[in-house]
Structures are given as structure tokens and as C-alpha cells.
Target: DNA starvation/stationary phase protection protein
Amino acid sequence: MAEKNAAEYTVPGLSLSTGRRTAEILQGRLHALNDLQLTLKHAHWNVVGPGFIGVHEMLDPQIELVRGMVDVLAERIATLGVSPAGTPGALVAARAWDDYTLGRATTLEHLAALDLVYDGVVTDHRAAIDATEDLDPVTQDILIDQVAQLELFQWFMRSFLTTDDGRLSSAGAATEAAAAGRVKDDQAAPAPQGARSKKSDAKKATASNAKKSKKK
Model:
């Protein structure tokens, strides 16, 4: 972080260099969360298909929550004596990740892609927790609280992607497009022969029972 954006003071109890290093770590997380809230809003506008309204409305509270996290981090950076960078140009110049790749897509495709987005954000937030442990416990507590909320929402999303045997339908995908492709393939795959036979047997049994009831 450029020193021209840093004051000649920080919070009591921290050295100037520690305050600046802590603010530098937070700036990286600020960029990540700013990107996340924009990505979530983009997905909110672009989900289609079955389950649309549930996912569309589920995303908005998380967007507001992440926007609140952004504000908390920016104000903590300022409290530490450093000017927080919140412009689009600063975000694009600093980020090490690509733009979210999905446009209009089904609810499951977006949720599978967003699950990967959350993997990255949570992993890097946890790394920041480790990095601030010996720097500033107050900042570390802020990050810990944010991770708990981010992980909770990732669980909400994963509940749509979890199979009855406890497997994520998008597991193993390395990119957002690949994750979306896996759940799309699952949706398009025909039911196994055994499953179709059981369904047919169930229909026959229902029809047979209906005939018996009419005779009575």
C-alpha cells in the first residue's frame, strides 16, 4: 500500500509499521468482498429456470451482508491510519482473479459457480486471519466474524448442490464454467435403468390399487 495514503499515526498499542501492514492485508480482503457483492448481484439478475424465485431472493440478503462487511473493513483500514481504496480501477488493478464467467444460467449452474467463488474468498479470508494473529487481535476478530457469516451462506448454497449421499454435484471442478457444466450434465442425464423400472412398477401398483378400490 502506497505510503502517500498512510497517516503518520495508527491505533494506540500498534507500531506504525504494524498498523500499515494490517491495513495492507485488509485492503486485499476489501477488494475481494467488493468483487463478491458485485458478483452476487450479477447472479441475482441472471438466474433462470426452476427455483428462480427462491435463489433470486436468497441472494439479496447476502449481498447486503457483504456490503456491510466492505464498510467494516474500509473503516478499520481508515482507523489504522490508511486511506482505503474502493474505486473500480483499484480493484481491477489489484485483483489476482478473473471476472465471473456466467451470464444467464440456471439456478444450479450459478450456485455451483458461486460455490467456487466462495471457496476462494473464504480461503483467503482464513489466510488473513492467520496473518493478523500476531499483528492485531481486533482486526483478526473482525475477519473471524466475517468468515463465519460467509461460510454459513456457502452452506445455504451447497444445500442445493448436495446429493442424498452427501456429495457435491459440482465437486472437483476447477473453474466456474466447469462447475456449472457438471450440474448441467447431472440435470440432463437420464435416470438409471433401475430407477426407471422402480418408477414404472410404482405406477403399475398405483393403477392396480385404484382398480381394486373401484370394484369395492
Q: What stands out?
A: Strands lie at 47-48, 105-106.
